[in-house]
Specification:
The complex is a heterodimer of chains A (338) and B (556). Chain A is mostly helical and 338 residues long. Chain A has 13 helices and no strands. The longest helix of chain A is centred in the middle third of the chain and has 36 residues. Chain B is an alpha+beta fold. In chain B, α13 links the parallel β14 and β15. Chain B starts with a helix and ends with a strand. Classes of the chains: A mainly alpha (338), B alpha+beta (556).
């Protein structure tokens, strides 16, 4: 066909020999995707930098007692804000290449990298636990509901996911605190209750993780249910049943593998969102996490902190997407990368 | 049923003891009754926000002063009733007859938290450091450059371009330590209020060897290097979670009863409130929305602690723009707001209405001066019409910081002005930083501003309305007012000084430099077992946080 003739010949553009074999092409793919991060980050930094400097309000403008012009001038000199915009931008790029993210404006003289390393672990722990819950419960109840469509099990799951998807985290969080902390404390005379907030690797984790996971569980359950129902109607499933396979085999081998493709693509971004923190959950439960740190940084125009957090978030989102793409090849052999 | 009665009776005993404790404290003998003390002397409070810095030269917010008041000891410290200062790091002080030289004698047994003696040189270094443009200390101006002899040039020194001149500038300041136990300050002009400046957190001494060893930007960020001279010292800092204080074992005044203070950094009101109910906090500010609930709760209402604060709010009129360039128009706006209704319906009676400037608790408190701004909607409308014509043709841009409380107050004021004056009010709700930027550029017409005392001297209040002040944005200017305040600021005779300030306040109110609204009060819940709480009208983040050293925890 004419169209085929016009297409470029594969391989002509690269001088070296393309490695053969699936593993080799996959690793080449991963390297290429990671290298792509560099221009992506460059644009993220540039856009954030420009927007930040366009935003009204300087880091030294605050409520209450005002700083005098002399003090503001000294502060600008100290943090290099009196230089022209392009000089500041160039200096920042050079520093970032050396992994120097600068000093925070808000927390006097503290390196931003240290602030992020301090506030990210609580967020990551809670996010990762919530993600595990989402994968287990979201997919689990979604599949069960589909297999028992139009029974009470299905109705309960659909009911839960409708309520779960429409309850904001701050409402759920406060309800949990009222029930499991305040009321339980009162009823048991102070002997047993969940801590109202704070972060520690013990029962402190229960309520934040549940609050964070509820909405995504509801969402993933609905998605899984819908896609499982679709797969269940396919001819090959009918064939599997007809061959007399047992339910467990049909579900794990034939249904799940096919119904999970849209779920996996939704789980990637969900993971990225969870691990970068929820401001609401962190505020409601007083968790010293990065979601709150980011919002505080924006509110106080802490430029170095805003930039560093944005860079971190972009890297996480890019990596999560990469993992999703790789998972496709595992779940669905028809997908080829490279 | 039986259980709840028993619990109530059981609670009343410590509550009574608290009262006894307060009376005892008020009598000046604050010896706690050791028989009923709890084994665990830990006090748990919430300071809302993580301090940006614990370097005395860098602190600027109440959640920083809340820690500073316990870990740093300044030359003198406020008395709880704010009538005067009392001896602290200095055991005595004297002022030369011309009022220009202040000599502080330091305690011979004053010690840092590492056991070294506190010397005059530590104060000289700390004060020079604040006036070093390279540190960019937030309050170098006006507290130090406007007071210390030789510091006038601070404003013209550039941290980078004039770096070579800085050492000479610092050495030329009127700060000296003739011997290890003396600190002498020379002033630019007599200043009766200088004792208050010596009590501010940024006036605390700083150790040069510590700063040199750990770095000016690092020493205050870790408990090991944060060497301080107060009754308590920092033992633990967990970012955005808490800061723990323990007694400084070398402190001259002996060991306090409370052996551990945990300062939580909980931003969410409801979270802190739940923590209080669950016994995880010993003190808590009542969230505005829960005010009535707490007042009507049979148990909680006994734990309420109500403390007026030296903080006052007003309508800030931009006098550079119409209609507020007209004095009668400003006065009309001031008369059009029902402050009683504001205090009752919006602020849940946690604030006191005020149509005057100086709040209750200060020397200059004169509520009788507010008559010209008293609520009178009919007179207000007539006045406005006479001054600038048909009110319905006037539209006011009202700048409001984006927070629930500010929006509620803003909505109330807008409604009052629209109803009582017939003007149109356009509420501009934007984020806090942007509001400040617009205020500093004078790009607004109306805004609710306020002032919280740095120290309880009238000078701190009256100076902000002087021509060219950076703390009131509206550009109010009246030469008569300026002249009176300048005279009063340096007047050594207390009576004469007060008379000048009273005249100045009358001018300010009659000119409607601001439309004064209300004084803020603290409403806290305090567990009955917290004894010896000593509150002031100038507390930082919690009622009583100037004097944690006087507190003890009863058995409970």
């Amino acid at each position: 066909m004419a169209v085929a003739q016009g297409a470029p010949r594969r391989g002509a553009l690269v001088s070296f020999k393309i490695p053969r074999g699936r593993a080799a092409s996959l690793s080449l793919y991963i390297i290429r995707r990671i290298l792509w991060l560099i221009p992506v980050l460059f644009f993220v930094i540039t856009i954030t930098f420009v927007l930040m400097h366009l935003a009204p309000g300087s880091p030294w403008d605050k409520e209450g007692k005002q700083l005098s012009p002399a003090v503001v001038r000294n502060l600008n000199a100290k943090y290099g804000l009196s230089d022209p915009f392009l000089v500041q931008y160039g200096r920042y790029l050079v520093n970032v290449v050396h992994f120097d993210f600068g000093l925070s404006f808000q927390y006097e003289d503290q390196p931003v990298s240290g602030l992020i390393l301090r506030s990210w672990p609580p967020t990551a722990v809670i996010g990762a636990l919530a993600f595990v819950m989402i994968v287990i419960f979201g997919i689990g109840i979604g599949v069960v509901a589909a297999l028992r469509q139009n029974t009470w099990v299905d109705y309960v799951v659909v009911g839960f996911s409708t309520i779960g998807a429409s309850t904001p985290a701050f409402v759920l969080g406060i309800i949990l605190i009222i029930i499991f902390s305040v009321t339980l404390y009162r009823v048991t005379g102070g002997n047993f209750s969940l801590p109202t907030g704070g972060f520690a690797l013990d029962q402190h984790l229960i309520m934040p993780v549940v609050t964070l996971a509820t909405l995504p569980i509801a969402f993933i359950a609905r998605l899984t249910r819908a896609s499982t129902l679709e797969v269940l109607r396919q001819d090959y499933i009918r064939t599997a049943w007809a061959k007399g396979l047992r339910e467990r085999l049909v579900v794990t081998k034939h249904v799940l593998k096919n119904s999970l493709i849209p779920v996996v693509s939704a789980l990637g971004p969900t993971f990225a969102v969870l691990i970068t923190g929820s401001v609401i959950v962190e505020s409601v439960f007083a968790i010293p996490g990065i979601g709150r740190a980011f919002v505080v940084a924006v509110g106080s125009r802490d430029y170095p902190m805003i930039l560093a957090t944005t860079i971190l978030f972009s890297v996480i989102v890019a990596l999560a997407n990469l993992v999703v793409d790789l998972l496709y090849t595992v779940i669905d052999p028809r997908v080829r990368l490279g | 049923m039986d259980d709840s009665v028993a619990r109530l009776r059981w609670l009343r005993v410590p509550a009574l003891l608290t009262v006894v404790g307060l009376v005892v404290a008020a009598c000046g003998t604050s010896a706690p009754t050791t028989s009923n003390l709890a084994k665990d002397q830990t006090l748990r409070v919430n300071i809302n926000t993580e301090p940006n810095s614990l370097d005395p030269g860098q602190e600027q917010y109440n959640y920083e002063g809340a820690i500073g008041a316990s870990i740093n000891e300044t030359l003198v410290r406020i008395k709880p009733d704010l009538s005067d200062v009392q001896a602290a790091a200095a055991s005595s002080w004297s002022v030369s007859s011309d009022g220009l030289t202040w000599t502080f004698k330091l305690r011979s047994n004053g010690k840092w938290s590492d056991g070294k003696p506190v010397t005059g040189a530590d104060f000289v270094y700390a004060w020079q450091r604040i006036l070093d443009p390279r540190l960019a200390a937030p309050y170098a101006d006006p507290f130090f450059d406007g007071i210390v002899a030789g510091a006038q040039d601070y404003g013209s020194l550039d941290a980078v371009k004039d770096a070579a001149k800085i050492p000479d500038f610092l050495n030329g300041l009127g700060l000296s330590a003739p011997d290890a136990s003396t600190f002498v300050v020379k002033l630019q002009a007599p200043a009766p209020y200088f004792k208050w400046i010596a009590s501010l957190w940024m006036s605390a001494p700083v150790r040069k060897d510590v700063v040199d060893q750990y770095g000016s930007d690092k020493w205050a960020t870790s408990p090991t290097s944060l060497i301080t001279n107060g009754q308590y010292k920092v033992s633990e800092m967990v970012s955005k979670d808490h800061i723990t204080l323990v007694p400084n074992t070398f402190y001259w005044g002996g060991a306090p009863t409370v052996t551990k203070i945990i300062n939580y950094e909980i931003a969410d009101d409801n979270q802190a409130y739940a923590k209080y109910l669950n016994g995880e906090l010993d003190l808590d500010s009542v969230p505005l929305a829960n005010t009535d609930l707490v007042k009507n709760d049979p148990k909680l209402k006994n734990e309420i602690k109500f403390v007026p604060q030296l903080t006052l709010f007003w309508m800030d009129f931009n006098t550079r723009k119409a209609p507020f360039n007209n004095k009668q128009a400003r006065l009309a706006f001031s008369k059009a707001v029902d402050r009683d209704s504001l205090a009752k319906n919006v602020l849940k009676q946690r604030s006191t209405p005020a149509d005057f400037f100086i709040p209750k608790g200060m020397n200059g408190y004169r509520p009788d001066l507010g008559t010209s701004q008293a609520f009178d909607p009919a007179a207000a409308k007539t006045m406005l019409t006479q001054a600038v014509g048909d009110p319905s043709k006037i539209t006011i841009d009202f700048l409001i910081r984006n927070s629930t409380a500010n929006k509620q107050i803003g909505e109330f004021l807008a409604d009052q002005l629209q109803t009582n004056l017939g003007v149109k009010v356009n509420q501009v709700v934007i984020d806090s930083k942007t509001v400040t930027t617009r205020l500093r550029k004078h790009d607004y017409q109306l805004y609710v501003g306020g002032w919280g005392a740095d120290y309880p001297d009238d000078q701190d209040w009256f100076d902000i309305w002087m021509t060219g002040s950076g703390n009131v944005f509206g550009g109010y200017s009246n030469p008569d007012y300026d002249a009176l305040v300048k005279k009063a600021d340096i007047e050594p005779d207390a009576k004469k000084r007060q008379a000048y300030y009273d005249q100045a306040q009358k001018i300010l109110i009659d000119d409607a430099g601001g439309g004064f609204l209300y004084q803020r009060n603290y409403m806290f819940l305090v567990k009955p077992y917290v004894q010896g709480l000593t509150t002031t009208a100038q507390d930082f983040a919690n009622v009583g946080d100037w004097f944690w050293g006087k507190v003890s925890i009863a058995q409970h």
